[in-house]
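Q: What changes when magnesium ion is included in the input?
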Amino acid sequence: MWCDYSVLTFVRQSLLTVLFITVFSYSYYGYTLAMQRKIIHIDADCFFAAIEIRDDPCLSGLPVAVGGDISRRGVIATCNYEARRFGVHSAMSSHHAKRLCPQLIIVPSRMAAYREASQAMREIFSDYTDLVEPLSLDEAYLDVSDSSGCQGSATLMAAEIRLRVEQALRITVSAGVAPNKFLAKVASDWQKPNGLTVIPPSRVETFVPPLAVTRIHGVGKVTAQKLHRAGIETCADLRQRSIFELTQLFGTFGARLYDLSYGVDERAVVASRRRKSVSVEHTYGEDLPSLAACLAKIPELYEQLQGRLDNLDESYRVNKAFVKIKFSDFSTTTLERLSPKALICHYRELLKEAFVRGARPVRLLGLGVRFVNLESNSNFFQLSLFNDNEKTYHT
Ligand code: TTP
Ligand code: MG
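A: The predicted holo structure follows.
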């Protein structure tokens, strides 16, 4: 009797275990299927140069670079693919570029035109998803997992985006489609220029192992040399190493390399909304009658502004300081000036200058900063124009 009972219990427990495993596996499988994402990475081809050639058809077919003047020890921002055949590339001195390719035409950059094209591209992207993460003026990730256009096909969406950009802007973009950011970026680079590469989930296992580690975003010259010295050239080589070993060699990036070698990248596409400026302002119960009265309010406002700035991460770099004044007749004036520091003395100077414009009692005072636009390449030089009255911006 005891024996029968124990057999029954055993059978029942075994059945329950099998049932549990089955249910768990199905739900896990379903979960992973539900998590399968569709990411598109778009990257314009020789972006600045393409805009210049578009706007000056005489340049078409010639080796063209955008960059600084040789006489001013300028550097190349980018060049077209004709120039790349001579070995010219970004960040190379213009002088060196000319030596490699004497017929190279170097034109100065026109950031306003690049920004305009960038904005137009983003408007096209936004027709497909709200989840657009711009990386620079000419590059963005799009998460189209939940997009219903093009019958939900990320490949068709990428093809359509490429066509629309070409028709609207007369430049070409390359696109990569994959289940994650890492592979989408590798894919967009795969058949540059003017290429579309798709890595569907079913292709990940054949695509990733032979992939050269130098294709991994974040593997620069130094890491590549270190990997090379360790005998690691491909993702398959990376897979031979334990996560422990890779972490010892490369710190936290080692763990990331381990994941990437299996084509795993869980990073979400984050639609970034970076602040362009921060300011504080106060409307006074009684108008401030004089400049001296306004100046007396600066320390308090400045402290509030500092408090706001302290809450931002270090990637925000101050580019300009500005003051805003609303006079008793409701006229408003803003005065701003380049300044990487935005010190309290800068605000005093700005206030003195701005006050003269109205020269009447003041209802409202505001202080603020504008930040370096990380997407623009025009802010490489941090200069201050305080004590230098040449360039002041009025609005
Ligand atoms: P990239 O997309 O890196 O380069 P690219 O678009 O010129 O060429 P491709 O994508 O076909 O390889 O950079 C976009 C723009 O950013 C580029 O056109 C110019 C600018 N840029 C610089 O100003 N300095 C640099 O060092 C780099 C890499 C780019
Ligand atoms: Mg590009």
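Observations recorded in class: The CA atoms of residues 29 and 234 lie 29 Å apart.
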